[in-house]
Specification:
The complex is a heterodimer of chains A (about 280) and B (about 250). Chain A contains seven helices and 15 strands. Chain A is of the alpha+beta class. In chain A, helix 1 runs antiparallel to helix 4, helix 5 runs parallel beside helix 6 and helix 6 packs across helix 7. Chain A starts with a helix and ends with a strand. Chain B has about 250 residues and is an alpha/beta fold. Helix content of chain B is about 15%, strand content about 20%. Chain B has an eleven-stranded mixed beta sheet with strand order 1-2-3-4-5-6-7-8-9-11-10, covered by helices on one side. In chain B, helix 2 links the parallel strand 1 and strand 2. In chain B, helix 1 packs across helix 2. Chain B starts with a helix and ends in a 15-residue tail after the last strand. Classes of the chains: A alpha+beta (about 280), B alpha/beta (about 250). Chains A and B meet through loops of A and loops of B.
């Protein structure tokens, strides 16, 4: 369904697209979403990550991305190892269940490259980009990870992202691109590290993030939506007793089952919404 | 002549009713056919199926024909409309009937932001709610919203009437010129230079006339429940004491 939602948006032109899928997870394991250049030998990388106690970590490669599952206790060590020994590999996200994939190109092609239509999970977030603030690169594509099992997609542009990036860098948050949305993700990461809940972090963002935006954040149990107080950027929701869906416009939702009878509405500006799946 | 244009000519020449299915034809073909319609066209009723949120459906029509759209539409539906009567049996995306010059547009569901923006004339009726900036810079259009409107509605409204059965969001009528605003429910806040004014009989008569044009039965709405808002006319000319309000 997410694939068809993205494909409808293909009509808006080529740039880049990405998505986060919340699939199954294993107890005490963490999934690292890794990205590398085309043709990269992820098997060799996984072999390098194996330790006698666990053997080779589970590896699922999808084009330029791979999901590596390691014991949660080893996450920090694996990240440090990758950073030191494999600068050619980028960690795009981590979590018990979240997997992130993103690439430049037409949304339909990107979805196809990664086999999105065949993935399954409780929820997912997709994004098609039309770059305004920074270059069209894979690193600039959304979603951006904000923490374990958390990601952010953004429609809009932030005007204070340079100042905020400098302030956050001083606070120890690192940035990979000149992208304004990555700053929003970094901002949420920083707030969460300080002990805020995601809802509180988003509320604080209303004050600290200047510009216009509609944010969608993914969490292990669901997702949240926040529009700036002026609500320049569109957002539309559809709710049925079987699902809740978000789109920038109704066009993205038309292929969803039962959309004709769904409750379709626009989220209010400056209001944090959360939807969580039943446990 | 392109195949689409040929098709358009043929459609206008023959049947009094035309059905256009957007699952099999493009919006471009539909609009090309509609743009060929004129006073003298045989085709008087155009039914549009499977709109599925597509943008710019029936934009730029300039003929007294009826267009019935069965479902939800995307952005700018019936934009720049002149003379046509357009019924949307669903929700409308941003900018429905934006820059309408004349005619009638009826949204049976909700409308997204900037409904009726900059419209010069005609009547826009929304059965549900309209979101932010409804009637922004309205220049003569009449807008009847049976639900509520979002923030910044009628911003810089120059003329015409905005009649809201429900409530209005923040900053109603900010920097208002001479558009007449009538809201039955609560108003979250008034924008700069917008004030409440007395609702006199002449205003009730005006509301009654607009509601009748919108097909709302006389007597079904208690006109005395409306409050009238208009411009205080203090921002028309620059005055340094108002600098904070600009």
């Amino acid at each position: 369904m997410l694939a068809s939602m993205l494909c409808v948006m293909t009509g808006r032109g080529p740039d880049s697209a990405g998505f986060a899928v919340y699939g199954s997870g294993a107890q005490d394991k963490v999934k690292l979403s890794l990205r590398a250049a085309k043709g990269y030998d992820f098997n060799a990388l996984a072999a390098g990550l194996s330790i006698p106690a666990d053997g080779m970590p589970a590896l699922t490669q999808r084009a330029t991305h791979a999901i590596v599952e390691v014991p949660a206790a080893r996450e920090a060590a694996v990240r440090a190892f990758l950073a030191a020994q494999h600068p050619e590999v980028t960690v795009v996200g981590t979590g018990a269940r979240m997997e992130i994939f993103k690439e430049v190109g037409l949304p339909a092609t990107v979805a196809d490259t990664f086999g999105l239509a065949r993935m399954s999970g409780t929820h997912g977030i997709g994004h098609t980009r039309m770059a305004t603030e920074s270059a069209v690169t894979t690193a600039g594509a959304h979603p951006f990870s904000t923490g374990a099992d958390q990601c952010l997609v953004h429609n809009g542009s932030l005007s204070n992202h340079n100042a905020l990036r400098r302030a956050l860098t001083r606070e120890g948050i690192s940035f990979e691109t000149e992208n304004d949305s990555e700053v929003a993700a970094g901002y949420l990461t920083w707030r969460l590290k300080q002990g805020a809940s995601l809802g509180e972090a988003l509320e604080a963002g209303l004050k600290d993030l200047d510009g216009f935006y509609t944010f969608v954040v993914g969490t292990e149990n669901g997702f949240g939506v926040l529009r700036d107080p002026v609500a320049c950027k569109p957002a539309v929701m559809a709710e049925t007793d079987r699902y809740v869906a978000f789109g920038s416009e109704y066009r993205a939702l038309v292929d969803l089952p039962g959309i004709e009878t769904a409750r379709v509405f626009e989220p209010e500006p400056a209001t944090v919404y959360f939807w969580e799946r039943a446990q | 002549m392109s195949p689409a244009a040929l098709n358009a000519t043929a459609l206008n020449a023959i049947a009094p009713e035309v059905t256009f299915d957007l699952a099999t034809s493009s919006v471009r073909e539909l609009n090309a056919a509609l743009h060929q319609a004129s006073d003298g066209s045989n085709a008087r009723l155009w039914r549009v199926l499977n709109p599925e949120g597509r943008h710019a459906i029936a934009a730029g029509v300039d003929a007294p024909i009826s267009i019935e759209i069965e479902g939800n539409v995307g952005y700018y539906c019936a934009g720049m409309n002149q003379a046509a009567s357009v019924i949307i049996r669903g929700n409308a995306g941003q900018g429905v009937a934006e820059n309408m010059m004349s005619g009638f547009v009826h949204v049976c569901g909700d409308a997204s932001q900037s409904a009726g923006a900059t419209a010069h004339g005609g009547l826009l009726v929304i059965d549900g709610n309209a979101s932010a900036r409804c009637g922004i810079s309205m220049k003569g259009v009449d807008i009847v919203v049976k639900g509520s409107v979002g923030h910044m509605s009628a911003f810089m409204g120059q003329s015409g009437a905005l009649i809201v059965f429900g409530e209005a969001g923040e900053a109603l009528g900010d920097s208002l010129y001479e558009a007449k605003l009538f809201v039955r429910g609560g108003v979250k806040s008034l924008g700069a230079d917008c004030i409440e004014k007395e609702l006199r009989d002449e205003h009730k008569a005006l509301i009654a006339a607009k509601l009748e044009a919108a097909g709302i039965a006389p007597g079904s709405v208690d006109l005395s429940e409306f409050k009238r808002y208009g411009s205080a006319r203090k921002l028309y000319n620059f005055h340094v004491d108002n600098a904070d309000a600009y």
